[in-house]
Design goal:
Layout: E1 2-6, H1 11-22, E2 26-32, E3 39-40, E4 44-53, E5 60-68, E6 74-80, E7 82-89, E8 95-102, E9 107-116, H2 127-136
Antiparallel strand pairs: 1-7, 2-3, 2-4, 2-9, 4-5, 5-6, 7-8, 8-9
Length: about 140
């Protein structure tokens, strides 16, 4: 297993490009830690991930949007004061999860229903590109 730590200055660009590549893929969202309730969603399609920065650029908020639930509502999740963004790969370069740690102690994890190989992702993302995406953002 390989865990890649995405540099803070690259979050917005990385998450934007990452979301475009995985948009529509079924993911579950899990939260733990902090004083918030533990949440685990059923698999819903990934719609968008956005990074919003404060005017001075010191504070950030990450918003995750998942597709419609059985009640025909979009699911959104807000991560206040994110501190780390981690991308986890299993053997064979298959993506397993994207984990975001918050200064509040909360941990949010997006997990794929099935491990996603980069060459399976829409928009023609080739396996070699998986390493390049992270490398070029460093």
């Amino acid at each position: 297993m390989i865990i890649q730590d995405v540099p803070r200055k690259a979050w917005a660009d990385f998450l934007n490009r990452f979301c475009r590549r995985y948009q529509g893929w079924p993911v579950s969202l899990e939260t733990s830690g902090s004083s918030q309730a533990v949440l685990k969603t059923p698999c819903l399609p990934l719609e968008d991930i956005e990074v919003k920065s404060s005017r001075d650029g010191d504070q950030a908020t990450i918003l995750i949007f998942l597709g419609k639930t059985c009640f025909n509502h979009w699911l959104s999740h807000i991560i206040v004061a994110p501190m780390r963004v981690l991308l986890e790969q299993a053997d064979g370069n298959a993506w397993q999860s994207l984990t975001i740690h918050s200064a509040t102690g909360a941990v949010t994890t997006l997990r794929w229903q099935a491990q996603a190989l980069p060459q399976q992702v829409k928009h023609g993302w080739k396996q070699a590109d998986s390493k390049e995406v992270v490398a070029e953002l460093r």
